[in-house]
Structures are given as C-alpha cells and as structure tokens.
Amino acid sequence: MYIYPIIHSTPDIFFKNMYSKNILYLTIVIALLSGFAVIKKIGEFDMTSDIGNPKLVGTSSYDKNTKVYTLKGSGYNIWFERDEFQFLYKELRGDFTMTADFEFVGSGKDPHRKVGWMVRESLYDNASHVSAVLHGDGLTVLQWRVAKGDKMRDPEDEIFSKEKDTQTVQLQRKGKTYTMWTAKKGEELKIVGTHKMDNLPDKIIAGIFICSHNPEVLEEAKVKNLRIVKN
C-alpha cells in the first residue's frame, strides 16, 4: 500500500514552493535550449558552448589525471561576418598570457580545420575577436574581426607565421595589444605578430576552440600543458 506523504506547510506556502521550483526548471531549460552557455567547470574554464549553431554538436572535456583537454567541434568556418565552432572559455579582465600545446587527432577532412586560442567580446556569432590559430595544413596565423558584424579580410585581418606545423601557441594581452607566439616541439617561443584591438573591452571571454571548416564533419584535438597567467 502506498502512503501519501504529509505536507508540513500551509497550502499557500506549498504552492509557492512548487511555483518557484517550476520557474527554476524553466530557466534551466531555456538556458540549455538557447545554445549559449552550459555552466560546468572544465579544468581552467567555466563554460563550454557551440558558437553560431553549427550543424553538428561539439563537446569539450578535461581529464584530471592526464591534465589533457579534448575538443570536438564542427562549423563551416571562423571567417566572413559570422563564425561556427566549439568554444571552451572563461571571463578574464586585465592583462594575461595564455599558453598551451595543440594537436589535431587524425588526418582530418579539411586542411583549413582550426584550433587555438580566442579572445572574444561576446558569444554572438558575429562578435569581434582576436585568435591565435593553427590550421590542419600547418598554417599558423594571428587573425581578427575588427568590429561586430564586420567581414574578416584576407590578408588585411591576418598576420602569418613564417613557420608551419608548430605545437605551442601563446596569446598575450597587454592593454589593448595582443601578441601571438608559437614554437615547434622542443623549441623556444618565437613571435608571430602583434595587433591592437581598440574596441575589445577590458572584460572579455577567452579560451580554446576548434572548428572543422566543414559543417558535415566533427573534428577533434588534444590540448596539453595549458596555462593562463594574469600579468
């Protein structure tokens, strides 16, 4: 026989509590369906999200034992006036230096698949950003979108590295100036270039990302030896 529990409260209090719980559940559902951010601590980062609603859902994870991040993401590109990619990020203020070793998993489907560091003004797909990027074909570049909704231009919005197939990528901010450094395995960091982003606010969104450069494909990358240092 099932015994119904006794409610130790007045009807008004009971229904108010039920109403509050329903509002909470509804808020969580809306946040999940919006596709903007799932609040979940992953290593150094606070949140993970697919930006630009790519066709295939991406994921980010962290192995506490090996201290390795695994990014899986799709997306048509990070270019023109809008982006699609998987993003693992946190909010930062002031000056900082972000460093990590990046490695794609497998041969990949498109030579322009991308992985690296990104600093972004918001989670909108057309937001202004600056990114330190490794491509699947070994191309290494500092690239940016000057202002929200602007089209990214080639080569006006890029600084290319003379070296390819690098492993370590560092992105540093001092004031409004962003500097990219890279290194091959076992070598010293070398500067790729510096660019000033006057429109990016002090409080920004920063993290690691992956983009497949093909909406039908989910690419994967491993990120190791990751460090974020406030200067």
Description:
Helices cover 10% and strands 47% of the residues. The protein contains 1 helix and 17 strands. The protein has one helix spanning 11-34; strands at residues 38-42, 45-51, 59-63, 68-73, 78-79, 82-83, 85-92, 96-104, 114-120, 129-135, 140-145, 158-160, 168-174, 177-183, 190-196, 204-211, 219-230. The N and C termini lie far apart (66 Å). The model is unreliable at 1-21 and 27-37 (pLDDT under 50).
Q: What is the CA-based Rg, rounded?
A: 21 Å
Order of helices and strands: HEEEEEEEEEEEEEEEEE
How confident overall, as mean pLDDT? 88
Q: N-to-C terminal Cα separation, in Å? A: 66 Å
Number of helices: 1
Determine the fraction of residues in helical runs and give it as a percent range.
10-25%
**Proportion of residues in extended strands:** over 45%
Give the biggest beta sheet.
8 strands, antiparallel
- Estimate the global geometry from the Cα principal axes: globular
Within the largest sheet, what's the order of strands? 1-2-7-16-9-10-11-12
Structural class designation? mainly beta
Q: What key attributes describe this structure?
A:
231 residues, mainly beta, 8-stranded antiparallel sheet, 7-stranded antiparallel sheet, 10% helix, globular, disordered N terminus
